[in-house]
Design brief:
18 strands, alpha/beta, 6-stranded mixed sheet, OB fold (Dihydrolipoamide Acetyltransferase, E2P), globular, 7-stranded mixed sheet, 9 helices, Rossmann fold
């Protein structure tokens, strides 16, 4: 992955531009061809805690005060309103209110993170952005039982000091903003008519509880045997303890604690024992370049969350 810009430099560029022009300037944060699942943008919440969002899910960074927002009449909603950003009507989200932090005075919020994944686009209003760092899956600890909106926490080094950082559940945030996603997904499952093609077991890993529940409904509807896992390591542990003849298919997310989807792919594809086992990647992270790289690694298909129609068809196509 190419070197990413320093956040202070980005903010400086935006500020300099705003002194010379009234036109809203969106600064490119990261190439849409980024192919590194371990890069995270760190930002600060009102509780002075660090939060992180995967760079692969981020489009751009902009200055909050420059947005022309049509505000929501519901002052208690975490959705502040809507803004026209590069010709697209975009929902503006106050991250602190969504995560459950104290909401600061409006002028204390500096930046907006434009996020794009799952076929949706929205903007997160945050207090301040720190910088981009690498967080390896092995350094992530699942704390979803302690915080329903958090996927995992990690210890990071900031200016020589060890700090804790929360990687929040991006899939839950997407669902909370776009309520129809769950209803549409469940409708697709109910209307699916995929006939069971194998008695073998499907192994599915995703750190998001919402996604696991959705996929479980699909697998139950299709009457497939399955095992669900919170992370890639759990899937690998189950894989190596099962009889090869019992394994029908592997479906994995990319961004997970302990062991990522890439760890799963690397292990399976480097062991000739599993040559006949197909892998489907179910993720909101993959851009065109990342998808092409995954396909070169003998992944059978890359599917965006939560496209139940495509996933159901792929299961029937690739299960053995």
């Amino acid at each position: 992955m190419e070197d990413l810009p320093n956040i202070e430099d980005l903010v400086s560029i935006v500020d300099e531009h705003n002194e010379d022009s009234d036109e809203l300037d969106l600064v490119k944060l990261v190439s849409t061809n980024a192919n590194d699942a371990n890069q995270y943008l760190l930002f600060m919440g009102s509780d002075n805690q660090y939060y992180a969002k995967n760079v692969a899910k981020i489009e751009e960074l902009l200055v909050y005060k420059d947005l022309n927002i049509v505000y929501n009449n519901d002052k208690n909603s975490f959705i502040l309103g809507t803004a026209n950003i590069r010709g697209q009507m975009t929902s503006i989200i106050n991250f602190d209110r969504w995560i459950g932090n104290e909401v600061l005075d409006d002028e204390l919020y500096e930046l907006v993170i434009i996020a794009a994944y799952g076929g949706k686009r929205f903007a997160l209003v945050v207090k301040e952005v720190e910088y981009i760092t690498t967080i390896d899956s092995s350094n992530m600890n699942d704390n979803s039982n302690d915080n329903s909106k958090s996927s995992f926490i990690s210890q990071i080094n900031i200016n020589g000091k060890e700090q804790l950082c929360t990687i929040f559940d991006s899939d839950m945030l997407l669902l909370d903003i776009f309520h129809k996603i769950q209803a549409e997904g469940e409708a697709d499952i109910l209307n699916s008519n995929y006939s069971k093609k194998s008695d073998k077991t499907i192994l599915f890993a995703d750190d998001s509880g919402f996604v696991r529940k959705m996929v479980e409904k699909l697998l139950k509807q299709s009457e497939y045997s399955y095992k669900l896992f919170n992370n890639g390591q759990q899937l690998l542990d189950a894989l190596t303890s099962m009889e090869l003849s019992d394994i029908g298919l592997i479906i994995t997310d990319l961004e997970m604690p302990i062991a990522s989807g890439r760890d799963v792919i690397d292990f399976v594809r480097n062991d000739n024992t599993y040559n006949d086992i197909k892998i489907i990647v179910h993720t909101n992270m993959a851009n065109d370049t990342m998808e092409n790289e995954l396909l070169k690694e003998n992944v059978s298909k890359v599917i965006g969350k939560v496209d139940m129609i495509t996933l159901g068809a792929a299961i029937n196509e690739f299960i053995i």
